[in-house]
Amino acid sequence: MTKHKTLHLFWAAFPLCLLILLLQVMPALAQRAAGKPDSITTWSFGPNLPITNVRAVGVFFPANGRFYAVGGRSSDAFGSDATNPFEYNPTTNTWTTKAAIFPDAHVNNMACGVLTVSGTPQIYCVGGSQATLVDAFGRVFSYNPVTDTLTTLTAADDWPGAAGTILPGGFAVVNNKLYILGGFNINVGSTNQIWEFDPTAAVGSKWTQAPVNTPEGIMYAPTCAIGGIIYVAGASDFSGGLVIDTTNSFSFNPVANTIGTIAPIPRATGETRALNVYGQMWVMGGGRVAPNPSNEVDIYNPYCNTWTTGARFVNPRRNFPTDTDGVSRVWLAGGYVNAVADMTMEIDAFPMAVSAVSRKVHGAAGTFDVPLPLNGPTGIECRSGGATNDYQMIINFATSVTAGSASVTCGTGSVGSFTGNGTATITVNLTGVTNVQRITVTLASVSDGTNTGDVPISMGVLIGDTTANGTVNSGDVSQTKSQSGQPVTGSNFREDVNASGTISSTDVAIVKSKVGTALPP
Ligand SMILES: [Ca+2]
Ligand SMILES: [Ca+2]
After folding, report:
1. How far is the CA of 469 from the centre of ligand 1 (A)?
2. Are 91 and 64 contacting, i.e. CB atoms less than 8 angstroms apart?
3. Separation between Cα atoms, residue 186 and residue 233, nearest integer Å
4. Digit-coded pLDDT (tens) for 449-475
5. Would you kindly state where each structural domain of the chain is located, as residue ranges?
6. Ligand 2 center to residue 374 CA distance, Å?
7. Strand-by-strand arrangement of the 258-261 sheet
8. Superfamily of chain region 43-349
């Protein structure tokens, strides 16, 4: 090729090269312009656990804002069982080995949760195994982190499901009761019973077996409660003498005692936990069959029955303590990393929303807000949205934030605009929001200057549901009739369903026209 021809080819290709370059650079520039970081790395390492630890349970204790690793063992050798609780203090960013001593060494693979008796919250733990042994205790103890005291319940309150050899499967707390779903009959198989523990019931009467079983045997199952429903996604099973991972996924309603179907988690996992973060289920890595263990965080939106993924943590691991405050932190530590007992800690920190509401101006009567609980159950907006079905969400943060974007990530509707960047209150204006649905608005790349993350806020929309029970029926009609002609106040504004500033026959007619509608379960 002559020099001339090479030059010619270069100039011929130049516009194409320029175009490719621009296509690659423009999105990054656009992200910068929108205030988004180029990549969001939200996980960072915290201080190491005091010891290596596997098979502990992570428990967030709301009363003091601290994270506990309860039980577990430092290795798989006999005598390695952890004898004391470990406490992580987010304020000082330090771990402390507490003075309290567990009643026995069967503290591996327990089921734990925070339950309140006589106004005092405590961490209750059930069952467990001991390193190298193949038996399982049914013993229950409570740990009070504030006083650092342990109380062992009498044998009459042992978990009947343990039967000497069975470890708890998935577990979650609903309405101050601890539920255990399934279990591992050690080196025999997975089990499918569901048990309820009521800490306030009389001695010998705290345990009740549900009249239904899990759809298949599950063990070491990622489980969490959202809005009173317990979700399981992924679970270990015992097959051919081995612990394996599955995609088994379902829901359990502990009040109705019904099993529900959900979209299965997109990857097999087990030997890990699921956490309720902003009313969505985070399934945290886990699993042991290649390519597991994993560091993937799978996120389930129960309102649209859909799966997405969040930011991966760093070290793939299983059987590790993990928990969340639900709104700004997810902690994890230890577990098996590369099949070796680990002591590293990882923290996902993101800006904390403290409250959210759906706001409407009721004419001259003023502004009234429907609270939108951050971790479920969803608040129910019962007011109509006018000609173009408009609503407004207000999300209050603990500190000033900037949001990169706001969009509808579940349900029907769209974000017209959002305001408030640089303040502690983000206002999202929604339009085209259809009735009879649950909708999720996600503020993406929310930054408080230090931490960045996505914040999803969900809302039920059911026009005419003045009683906020998820259905429109005669109860809503009579409630609205009873307030007709009354001034609109903070206690009856839901009955002003057209947000006109007065409660009249027009509102009654709207409610009547919606009788028979209900939010999906
Ligand atoms: Ca109702
Ligand atoms: Ca009205």
Report:
1. 5
2. no
3. 21
4. 999 999 999 999 999 999 999 999 999
5. 43-349, 353-514
6. 28
7. 223-226, 229-239, 242-253, 258-261
8. Kelch-type beta propeller (2.120.10.80)
Report the separation in Å between the CA atom of 472 and the middle of ligand 1, taken as the mean of its atom positions. 4
Could you identify the residue written with the tokens 């733990």?
Answer: 125
Alpha-carbon gap, residue 327 to 278, rounded angstroms: 6
Distance, CA of 39 to CA of 32 (rounded, Å): 11
In this predicted model, what pLDDT tens digit does every residue of 330-387 receive, in sequence order? Answer: 999 999 999 999 999 999 999 999 999 999 999 999 999 999 999 999 999 999 999 9
In our burial notation (b when 16+ CB lie closer than 10 A, e otherwise), range 380-405 reads: bbbbbbeeebbbbbbbebeeebbbbe
Please count the other Cβ atoms lying within 10 Å of the Cβ belonging to residue 520. Answer: 11
Could you tell me which of 427, 430, 454, 281 has the C-alpha nearest to residue 356? 427
Ligand 1 centre and the CA of 226: distance in Å?
21
Q: How many CB atoms lie within 10 A of CB 79?
A: 11
The encoded tokens of residue 219 equal 């063990």
How far is ligand 2, taken at its centre, from the CA of residue 186, in Å?
A: 62
Residues with a beta carbon under 5 angstroms from ion ligand 1: 465, 467, 469, 476
- State the ligand closest to the CA atom of 487: 2
Amino acid at residue number 109? N
